[in-house]
Amino acid sequence: MAEDYKPGSVPLEEQDDRKLFCKYHYKGVLIILIPLALAPMFLAFPILVFRFLYLTFCFYLYYILNLMARGAAAFIYITLIPVCGIESSKPLSISYYADIIFLCYAAVFMGGAMDTSKVSERIGTFMLGISNGNIKMLQIFLTILVMFNAALVNPTLAAAFWMKVAQAAMVELDKGGVVKLYSDEKPYEVGSKPYPSFPAAGIFITCGYAASLGAMMSPLVNPNGIIASKYGIDISGLVMITAGPAIIGVIVMIVWINLIFFGMLGGKTKADLLEGAANKPAFKQALVDKKASLGSWDTHAKATLSLIILMFILMATRKPNIVPGWDDFTGSVTCGITVPAIFVGILFFAVAANYLFCRYYVCREPEKQGTAPSLVGWKTVNNICPWADIFMLGAAVSGIVSGVPSQYYATVVKALKTDDGGPFLHFLYGALYGTLLTILAPATTVAQIAIPVVSEASRNFSLPFATALHNSFLLPTSSAANTLVSGWGNVRPYLYLIAGIVPTIIVFLTVFGMTSLLRPSIYYT
């Protein structure tokens, strides 16, 4: 019997073979080597800009290379930005608790309620029945549904809802022997969650990417609403630019994930999926048994789904960009996305999962005696909450906020404007710069913080900068949707780099092309 791991003991087995040095010790070496290699940046001018860049390079290299626990790396900014004289700790601390962070917490409340009430299992088994256990059909259905929800409601909540459904579906596929849920790779940290298999990672990443693409072609949700209001342009003109690239991006995303994660090019993944396909008859029977065990929708499941629908309605009608919403009638006080999301999140804890207490008020005895717990408990939420990933998202937001006092945005735009290549290159530079920032942090945050600075410096530069903010694919911190998918599915950053490289390039090229083509019709309004 293997000895249990104890804190303080060596988490990896000892090895005398020096050839295994890189495998077992590269993280410790790089943690020291990266700051030393980048240290000459402290000698460059402008001083605050290069201090900010130094911390940013270290932060994201640690994150992408998985050199340090994400929950610890997330506090690099809040610790060292004030020390470097860039920004004081108070506004920096506030940025770690932006609206988008609390929206993630509301999504976690919703996800916990879905798991507890088995709403995710019920919808997951229904989708498996429609797709006949075919993972490629499951991906297509998820893409359509996530995009529809993201376009009408909110991309973060859409990704969270369908990610829980996808997880429940993958559990059943794993039990039926059709698709493996977990990889055989040993987790680096002892006791951590297992890594998902390539097919599972492909399904999970689909939820995050489809959410970003759905928001891209929607006039109702941000960042399109923020971009349109910043420039004073008609949002329908902005959607004309983004809708076409979004459709192309969906097709590219589906094909690319099939190539990389579903074994379309062959290899071990394809062999595993073909082997699993032989178990379809047994899986179908297991699915029938699963539906029978779930039974009809009980009060717990109905109440949970009702509150989720209420959350979606409140979010969709809060501030749609084409008609007035209920937030427009609250006077000078603005209700952000946090208000309706957290409000319904609180109701998940307040509403009873059953109505045994009604026996005190109506003349009807319950079927069985017992307690009346809430729809979700805090222990469940605490267990499924991806704390480290949400902290990383907060750090990404703080990095965008810190770009203003460090003069980073203004310095970059000023440097690019001095190029002799003319307006076309400035237009291209703006699109590339917007893509870079939205890779590092959520598009809504970049739009709110960076667009005013960039727009003041150069309008020709800022328009493609703004329309390029939809390239939220390459990192888990690129969007709140990606953050939740990464945290719940334990999808590491390097898989996002693999999955997102082609969609990012295609979406960038198509958005840049459409912005260049339609610029005269929306620019001077």
UniProtKB/TrEMBL annotation:
TM segment ranges: 28-54, 60-84, 96-114, 137-162, 198-217, 237-261, 300-317, 337-358, 427-451, 494-518
Q: Where in the cell is it found?
A: Membrane
Indicate where this protein is primarily found: membrane
Gene Ontology annotations for the cellular component aspect, listed alphabetically: plasma membrane
Protein topology in the membrane: Multi-pass membrane protein
> A single GO molecular function, which one?
citrate transmembrane transporter activity
Q: Give the record's keywords alphabetically.
A: Membrane, Transmembrane, Transmembrane helix
The record's PANTHER family line, in alphabetical order, gives:
SOLUTE CARRIER FAMILY 13 MEMBER, SOLUTE CARRIER FAMILY 13 MEMBER 2
Write the protein's name.
Answer: Uncharacterized protein, isoform B
Originating species: Drosophila ananassae (Fruit fly)
Lineage of source species: Eukaryota, Metazoa, Ecdysozoa, Arthropoda, Hexapoda
